[in-house]
Amino acid sequence: MTDAAAASPTLAAHHVHFFDEAAFLDTDRPGFRRRIIDGTNLQLWFWRITGGSTGSVLHKHDGNEQIGIVVRGALDFRIGDPSSAERSVLRPGDIYLAPVGVWHGDSVFLGDDEYGECWILDVFAPPRTDIG
Amino acid sequence: MTDAAAASPTLAAHHVHFFDEAAFLDTDRPGFRRRIIDGTNLQLWFWRITGGSTGSVLHKHDGNEQIGIVVRGALDFRIGDPSSAERSVLRPGDIYLAPVGVWHGDSVFLGDDEYGECWILDVFAPPRTDIG
Asked: Do B102 and A13 make contact, defined as CB atoms within 8 angstroms?
């Protein structure tokens, strides 16, 4: 059980949203707030990221499939072969699917007009055990 | 491999969005268009549903964990114990998590101002084998 589940078992079991600001915890990366909810076969990582933040160098997950869903703002990143993948900009409603072992990252997070933040939901299957 | 993967291997492998209207196929439920993308550990069901549609009676999945993410419009539904669960309205950015065996549905789908549609992404882990 992680932060949100401890804070509100009902929400964790049923429905959750990005607007529960108190459920978001600071991480060791300035500007990156996160809420993690554990499922059984999947794990939800909600991000509220200050617009203009960079980070998330190109990386891959060798044991987890991942999807990322942009909810607010935009994600300017690369996905695929590191030597050839061009930059893509994903906006609200856009989703990326990163199969196991596929590189992604080199990201710039663009804030929305209302919060000045980029909101992204990452879903990992199976749940990650290396939460950093 | 399902419809979207066949239509665009690049999109299926990397990033996808709700705006690829041609990738959505009619289903046997009038007003419900769907795009399915298969991952390995998870499966994405994109829905574009005409506002005002009803359906999705209370049901549960005994082999799959599910999340639902509202992207446009709203989902007015119930989740939890069928005898006591009250109605909830989820709006863009709201997510529900339905663990294996948890009842959900009895849904009314409300259209957004721009398309008159409700856009929902359902994620199943593991992928469903009973696609109807």
From this structure: yes
